[in-house]
Specification:
The complex is a heterodimer of chains A (80) and B (267). Chain A has four helices and no strands. Chain A is mainly alpha-helical and 80 residues long. In chain A, helix 1 crosses helix 4. Chain A is globular. With 267 residues, chain B is of the alpha/beta class. Chain B has one domain: 2-enoyl-CoA Hydratase, Chain A, domain 1, CATH 3.90.226.10. In chain B, helix 1 runs parallel beside helix 3 and helix 2 packs across helix 11. The radius of gyration of chain B is 18 Å and the shape is globular. The termini of chain B are far apart. Classes of the chains: A mainly alpha (80), B alpha/beta (267). The interface between A and B is medium-sized, with 19 and 24 residues.
């Protein structure tokens, strides 16, 4: 099973690649809406990519109020 | 009309397949413009079906297949109206869209929704009238109506009940959560999940396969396995109008229209 750090690192890598942001510009406690400059539809796109990548189902109500990568990683980790 | 190029949608017939493309920005929201052109389409279907065995419905908009009803039009349209007039307007719209969707549901050819991205609310209901849904793996489905104090109004509940188990329907409806194409396939909603950007290509290949069989047999099979739940569809319109009359709905629509929240889609 992946560690929490591995999950977080994979999320940061996936977000950097897909939204074309240098990986070194992303950190765990960033607000991903601001750092990635994404709107709600793009956030849904990110959620779907993460679900496909980690092969988990993450109901979006669990993400209400979540805007940083670390908390997002925690939510995913709890379903691995 | 073999070909049509409208403001919100277009269609063409190629090799026995009607391709109906949705192209209203930003994500094919269904308001009076889309409804009017869908009405033109079902009127044309009588002639189109003579030279077609299949229909593919898809979106050319990048964010997705369809984001559902045009809530801004709905909200601003009801401003300044007395409640009974607003409800009468909504009922008229619902009766028109139900007529269109019922005709598409029962269309005497095999229908395929090739979906991607956002497939929410009325967009989900539009896909549900098709005989098969082929989904790009980035598709996301959702019935978010309950957050507005409403239920799906374009035939969603009766058609979901027809196609899926009731426990699944309750989860999707009562939580209003969105779910991806893999989940949609697991619950039996989607027949094929394909790679990103591949839904239309696969739908075309599927339509070509359908053309190899006797059309009359295919129609008989469709009629046999896909009844249209007319009574429940009528009840859904009544329920929607009853709920629409409550002040909570206008408040919910106002909140949505004016929202600057990063997660406005979340229930």
């Amino acid at each position: 099973m992946k560690t929490a750090d591995q999950t977080l690192e994979e999320i940061l890598g996936l977000a950097a690649t897909h939204f074309k942001v240098p990986r070194e510009k992303l950190s765990a406690d960033d607000d991903f809406f601001k750092t990635l400059n994404i709107d709600s539809l793009q956030a849904l796109d990110l959620l779907t990519r993460l679900e496909n990548h980690f092969k988990v189902e993450l109901p979006d109500y669990e993400l209400q109020g979540v805007s940083d990568f670390r908390t997002l990683a925690g939510r995913i980790q709890s379903r691995l | 009309m073999k070909q049509y190029q409208g403001q919100a949608l277009s269609w063409d017939v190629k090799a026995g397949v009607i391709e109906l493309a949705l192209h209203r920005e930003p994500c094919n929201e269904i308001g009076t413009l889309v409804l009017g052109e869908l009405e033109k389409f079902v009127e044309a279907l009588d002639v189109l079906q003579r030279e077609a065995h299949a229909l593919i419905l898809y979106s050319v908009q990048n964010p997705g297949f369809c984001a559902g009803a045009d809530l801004r039009e709905l909200y601003y349209g009801m401003q300044g109206l007395e409640k009974p007039a607003a409800i009468a307007g909504v009922r008229d719209f619902l009766e028109r869209i139900h007529r269109v969707l019922n005709l598409m549901d029962a269309a005497p050819l095999t229908t395929i929704a090739a979906v991607h991205g956002v497939t929410f609310g009325g967009g989900f209901e539009l896909a549900l009238v098709c005989d098969m849904i082929i989904a790009d793996k980035m598709t996301r489905f959702c019935f978010p109506e309950l957050r507005l104090g409403l239920v799906p109004g374009f035939g969603g509940i009766p058609r979901l009940k027809r196609d899926l188990g009731n426990a699944v329907v309750r989860d999707l409806l009562l939580t209003g959560r969105s779910f991806n194409a893999t989940k949609a396939q697991q619950i039996g909603l989607v027949s094929q999940v394909v790679g990103e950007g591949e839904a239309l290509r696969v739908a075309r290949a599927t339509a070509a396969q359908l053309g190899k069989f006797d059309q009359e047999t295919a129609l008989a099979a469709k009629k046999f396995i896909k009844p249209i739940p007319y009574d429940e569809l009528k009840q859904e319109i009544d329920l929607f109008c009853e709920l629409f009359a409550r002040p909570a709905v206008e408040a919910g629509l106002k909140k949505f229209v004016e929202s600057t929240d990063a997660h406005p889609y979340l229930p």
